[in-house]
Amino acid sequence: MAKTKQKKDTAPRQVAMVFDLNKCIGCQTCSVACKTLWTNEDSTDYQWWCTVNTQPGRGHPRDYEAMGGGYRDGVPQPGRLPARREWGGGWDFNYDEVLYGGKGNSTFLQHVGDEPEWGPNWDEDQGAGEYPNAYYFYLPRLCNHCTKPACVDACPRDAMYKRSEDGIVLRDETRCRGYQFCAEACPYKKVYFNFLRNVSQQCIMCFPRVEQNVAPACARQCPGRAVWFGMLDDAEGPVSQLVNKWKVALPLHPEYGTDANIFYIPPVGPARLHEDHSFDEETPRIPREYLESLFGPKVNAALDTLTTEMAKTKNGRKSKLMDTLIAYWWKDMFKPYDRDPAEIKWK
Amino acid sequence: MKVVKLRLANRTLLDPAAAQWKKVAAEQVVLGATPLHKQPSGHVRAAWAGKAIGSVRSVKVQAAHNGDNIAIRLEWLDDSKDLDHGDGTVFPDAAGVLFPLKGEAELESMGSPEAPVNAWFWRANLPEGEAQELIAKGVGTLEPAPKRQTEARSRWYRGRWQVVFSRPLSVRGDAVRFSARKAAKVAFAVWEGSSQERGGLKSFSKVWQELSIQ
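ok -> structure tokens follow
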């Protein structure tokens, strides 16, 4: 059974994003920017192409890291589909009754239907550890537009492809027949199903914006200057500098083997406190083993670089890395994708 | 397999519950699983390595025409009526009838560029009455046929799906032709949604059957 078509699963150029987890305040502005732009239709109600999860935490969908997919040593790994209840979200509320039905003084606003048991941000700020050394941080997650996309590989219909001009992973919805092999294969579980239209959907990296030199909404709308966007091969750009030169930006779960293109500056975290509440500078509050479990062993070198460079500025010296991470000039975070979308007449 | 002539209105012919179907001779067609090693993706092969494909082992087939339309009625045992995607981990039940468009198309691969196949496809979550009419030229190449001329009606009754496909006997374009002079080739497939069967994961009749118009 020879395939009649060549898979379009590689691209010479690749866009990428870097999230600084030391700067992310978990405000979900990225999630909402995406939501209002792309997933405000029926059956996309439960879809959050960008979510910010609290770590340690079970993520979204719940316990996605145990659902398989991706590759180990280049070998495809079995994956499973998340159940709708593992996504949660998209709940219905009794708005009509309370807001328009004359029961505003006698009925509480409440959800309708099955008791919610999970949602996109269900375990927010729970984290781990014990007072006074409790810890958590935020992890924005979206489609990784992987260099080796398991979703593209899994589709028997070649409905999915990587665009050669920028490596964005897209789906031809006219070819998609809703088999969801892509969702099974994605180890990050960032593929959603549209139950009404019978097609899978995921983050499209705001490609219509990117084509007009406008950064994706999640990146541009970040009020914390925590996101950089650009071509990975733009050697002078901040994305390449952080990923390739300084090596302080790392993909989530590199062991999944898909070569993710969303990168994270790992959280340095505050110092631990001794029982007498004096600082314990020797032991990181966020256990290194935990960060290694998320970002792989390279997280140690990344954190060492970050602390070394931070110490430089603390001592009044200059650090180009710190200048980049501080992001004095907001637009520099996206160049050349820094065009104002309000200037554009969108079709 | 004979396509018997019945004096029936098109509506009745398309009705899986119509009493007249009881008089039509039925053939029990054995189905087998699609081979896992031929699934076109390593991820599908990995995910299904320990799972059984092909839950439905046989399908009862009847065929009739009224001079204008031809109808094929399929009936199979199914304890679980999967009308939709349920909790997100199941698929709607489905069935298909396949014809070579010309000569001897390869059945297991769903045809080839040189020898395409024509499929009538019913899925439990399609609007009632609707069938998809598709053309395939090999694995993963299904495309909607240029013109949709096939309808399907279904009912789930006492643990069985009953599905009738119907199409005008004479049509234009890329679609299988029926003639009293020459038997058509036909094959059948069933997808068990509760077992996550979809796409190439299905039960199918492994050899072409003959369909002769009476």
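Chain B has a mean pLDDT of 96.
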